[in-house]
């Protein structure tokens, strides 16, 4: 049985990659991948900045609920792990 990632099987991922090659061309793929990587990095940096600002404001106002903060951190880590699993599988296929 094939592993299913985000409700997309292996054949669908291959088909999507094939369409991407047809649309952008093989010579443009590194540029597209680089742009996608930069976009993901920017999103990650923005998320971390927002998280630090909220944490800083909460600490200054003495509003920090450590249990809620731990739960949120655990959820963020789960999403990050899922994203890394997805990008890892995409990188391995290329």
Can you tag this structure with a few keywords?
94 residues, mainly alpha
How many helical stretches?
3
The count of β-strands is 0
Q: How much of the polypeptide forms β-strand, as a percent range?
A: under 5%
Strand count, sense and barrel status of the largest sheet are:
none
Structural class category: mainly alpha
From the N-terminal CA to the C-terminal CA, the straight-line distance is 21 Å
Using only C-alpha atoms, the radius of gyration works out to 18 Å
The coarse silhouette is elongated
The ordered H/E elements are HHH
Which percent range fits the helix content?
Answer: over 70%
Unreliable sequence segments: none
Q: Mean pLDDT across all residues, rounded? A: 79
Task: Write a short abstract of this structure.
The chain has helices spanning 10-24, 29-60, 66-93.
Secondary-structure blueprint of this entry?
Blueprint: H1 10-24, H2 29-60, H3 66-93
Task: Characterise the protein shown here.
The protein is 80% helix and 0% strand. The chain contains three helices and no strands. The two termini are 21 Å apart.
